[in-house]
């Protein structure tokens, strides 16, 4: 997306989390070989989250998929989540044009499809989003916010701002990318027929969501009947809060917290998309991450932690070559794999996290 390191540095220093910005003609739409018909066909797939937003006057109505037959009426918009789990070309686009942040930070790629005047209304997100215009044109009315949930319309079926006054208006054309930071309002209206926008959303969970998830992880990891406070205190004694140090030592353990976060950010959106197979002989094979797979890793002095689809795998430091290739390029050759790790590769194939392909 950025032509050189200086342009990327400018984005990180001057734009990121500061202001909405349009980058014109930075992506070639012809390189993203996914059609309107292919996107709409996903609406009938139970493993793909889809919804239709219809508009009557100033009111918006929400219908949830799957849809046997997509009836895209006047001013209707179809939205389909998780395109990167179904189309290899979307994965290629992420690596080619959005490789300036790690893949594990991407929440998903959503398509919004509509004809002239279709819209999902004025709203804001709690996360950073890159809006790539794939086909047609879309008019955007924008402000820089920040907005909060108490500004939402309590009577709307979808999360829309009760009141919105645009500070600027612009038109996105094929190949343009609009960056919108969290809390900034955006109101997109299809300006032409066959309007397709791809939304690349970055994960930005709330503190509450993360604490709740961490709690569940701790309950699984710290499954022990040992009591923290075994002292028999004298009658009339003041409250002894020394047990807090023991709890803090458990919760604030660096290794436990890092393993939780690695598991959290790689958790699958739809586990049902993985299809396992029997590995067979892996000699001379190229191993590819499945489309739905999410993966990252952490290097330690004495070991290597692989986080893949929410699972945690401990490896030796010598495994770094294939693990790094899997995370960055989403593929590696079995010649890069130490013999001791081949059983790990076989297990990943059996669970459908990766697939084997002959060179």
Features:
359 residues, eight-stranded antiparallel sheet, three-stranded antiparallel sheet, 8 helices, 23% helix
As a whole number of angstroms, the C-alpha radius of gyration is 24 Å
Strand adjacency order, main sheet:
1-9-6-11-5-4-2-3
Report the structural category. alpha+beta
* Oligomeric assembly: single chain
Low-confidence stretches: none
Specify the overall morphology: globular
Question: What characterizes the major β-sheet?
Answer: 8 strands, antiparallel
Beta-strand share of residues: 25-35%
How many helical stretches? 8
SSE order, one letter for each helix or strand: HEHEEEHEEEEEEEHHHEEEEHEHE
Number of extended strands: 17
Portion of residues within helices: 10-25%
CA(first)-CA(last) distance: 30 Å
Mean pLDDT: 92
Strand and helix layout:
Layout: H1 5-15, E1 21-23, H2 36-41, E2 50-56, E3 59-64, E4 77-80, H3 88-97, E5 106-114, E6 129-135, E7 138-142, E8 168-172, E9 177-180, E10 186-190, E11 195-202, H4 207-221, H5 243-251, H6 254-265, E12 285-289, E13 295-299, E14 304-308, E15 311-315, H7 320-328, E16 331-333, H8 342-351, E17 354-358
Antiparallel strand pairs: 1-9, 2-3, 2-4, 4-5, 5-11, 6-9, 6-11, 7-8, 7-10, 12-16, 12-17, 13-14, 14-15
Helix pairs in contact: 4-6
Could you explain how this protein is built, in words?
- By secondary structure, this protein is an alpha+beta fold.
- It has 8 helices and 17 strands.
- The strands form 4 sheets. Strands 1-9-6-11-5-4-2-3 form an 8-stranded antiparallel β-sheet. It has a 3-stranded antiparallel β-sheet with strand order 8-7-10, with no helix packed on it. The protein has a 3-stranded antiparallel β-sheet with strand order 16-12-17.
- Helix 4 crosses helix 6.
- The protein has helices at 5-15, 36-41, 88-97, 207-221, 243-251, 254-265, 320-328, 342-351, and strands at residues 21-23, 50-56, 59-64, 77-80, 106-114, 129-135, 138-142, 168-172, 177-180, 186-190, 195-202, 285-289, 295-299, 304-308, 311-315, 331-333, 354-358.
